[in-house]
């Protein structure tokens, strides 16, 4: 049965890749409709790994910067699916050099950054300011990358997100993603759709609490521990 599921899952991955490929081309050809293309593709991808999505808390319509735990590459598709409005993602500059994919990034207000280049980081801050002033929400993962060994635990947060939020005084709203990475099994590879939960925490301004960054990380990890303990019981 696992082998059959593995074969079906491979076909799903191929379909997903084609979806992203076509979406990227459409965004390049007709960027005015990019939101429709992106949301449609995200819903197709999300259906592959989520049999149900539970949302706790509410998205603050005034939040400017969303920060969350990075669990899988499909985190983006999930958040695009549950949030109807346009989201701005910050990606490493190498993705902007990938054929076709670059259209979805460079023609849809996404932000590309070279983390090793100070000038690029300053440009990123400038672009985040411009996007948020236009009323768009920017999404960042403070970890920078995901914990492939244990997605239940967050790795050390980078200081860049803290600097951006404080420098621009953005209204921040944290979110926590539960159970998404466990839809993707190994040995053999297969996709087994799971019940995914997204928890929105209360939003705030960094200036109101000097220790907001450390305390937010601690609170999010406590939520992860509690939620996975419930799943294991």
From TrEMBL:
Residue span(s) of domain Phospholipid/glycerol acyltransferase: 64-180
Keyword entries, A-Z: Acyltransferase, Lipid biosynthesis, Lipid metabolism, Membrane, Phospholipid biosynthesis, Phospholipid metabolism, Transferase, Transmembrane, Transmembrane helix
Keyword Ion transport: no
Gene Ontology MF, one: 1-acylglycerol-3-phosphate O-acyltransferase activity
GO biological process: phosphatidic acid biosynthetic process
InterPro entries registered for this protein in UniProt: Plipid/glycerol_acylTrfase (IPR002123)
UniProt cross-references to SUPFAM superfamilies, sorted A to Z: Glycerol-3-phosphate (1)-acyltransferase (SSF69593)
Signal sequence, start to end: none
SMART domains reported for this sequence: PlsC (SM00563)
Domain of life the protein comes from: Bacteria
Transmembrane segments: 6-29
Record carries keyword Membrane: yes
Pathway membership: Lipid metabolism
PANTHER family: 1-ACYL-SN-GLYCEROL-3-PHOSPHATE ACYLTRANSFERASE
Protein name according to UniProt: 1-acyl-sn-glycerol-3-phosphate acyltransferase
Organism expressing this protein natively: Caminibacter pacificus
């Amino acid at each position: 049965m696992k082998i059959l599921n593995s074969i079906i899952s491979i076909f799903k991955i191929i379909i997903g890749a084609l979806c992203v490929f076509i979406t990227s081309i459409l965004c390049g050809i007709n960027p005015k409709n990019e939101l429709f293309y992106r949301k449609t593709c995200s819903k197709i991808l999300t259906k592959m790994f989520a049999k149900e999505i539970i949302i706790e808390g509410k998205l603050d319509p005034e939040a400017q910067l969303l920060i969350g735990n990075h669990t899988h590459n499909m985190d983006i598709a999930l958040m695009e699916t549950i949030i109807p409005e346009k989201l701005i993602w910050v990606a490493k500059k190498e993705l902007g050099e990938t054929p076709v994919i670059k259209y979805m990034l460079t023609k849809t207000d996404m932000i590309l950054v070279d983390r090793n280049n100070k000038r690029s980081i300053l440009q990123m801050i400038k672009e985040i300011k411009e996007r948020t002033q236009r009323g768009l929400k920017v999404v960042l993962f403070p970890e920078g990358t995901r914990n492939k060994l244990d997605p239940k635990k967050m790795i050390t947060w980078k200081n860049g997100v803290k600097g951006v939020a404080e420098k621009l005084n953005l209204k921040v709203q944290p979110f926590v993603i539960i159970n998404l990475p466990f839809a993707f099994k190994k040995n053999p590879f297969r996709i087994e759709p799971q019940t995914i939960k997204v928890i929105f925490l209360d939003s705030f301004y960094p200036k109101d609490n000097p220790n907001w960054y450390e305390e937010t990380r601690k609170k999010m990890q406590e939520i992860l521990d509690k939620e996975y303990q419930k799943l294991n019981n």
